[in-house]
Description:
The chain is α+β, with helices and mostly antiparallel strands. Helices cover 28% and strands 33% of the residues. The chain has a single domain, classed as Gcn5-related N-acetyltransferase (GNAT) (Aminopeptidase).
Amino acid sequence: xxxxxxxxxxxxxxxxxxxxxxxxxxxxxxxxxxLLAVVVHPETGDAAGGLLGRTSMGLFFxxxxxxxxxxxxxxxxxxxxxxxxxxxxxxxxxAATLVTVNFQAPDFYARNSWVEFGRIASAPGAxxxxxxxxxxx
Length: 137
């Protein structure tokens, strides 16, 4: 039986994570998937922004990155990105990848040495840019 939904059960993520981890281990003998986050927050208080990604099999996936407007252009974004990239290197990652939208931050990533390697038009006026960066020294 198949069910199409926009509200999957909470257990689905666990089933998928564990199933893929087991399969990948059988194929590669690697079980190194780890979350990677940089949290931007005031000295006291909850997160105001940051980035969330993961490392696996020598690759850093940058999944989400958000800074509130008042922090953009302050250097905070580059510092957060550099922190994440440095941690990915410590974890043995040779490269990084992300997907951004043309009205989000492709120029920011390019200024930080990320290179576009593909683009797909999606909604009217929106294009997804696929970017990568070599992390090896």
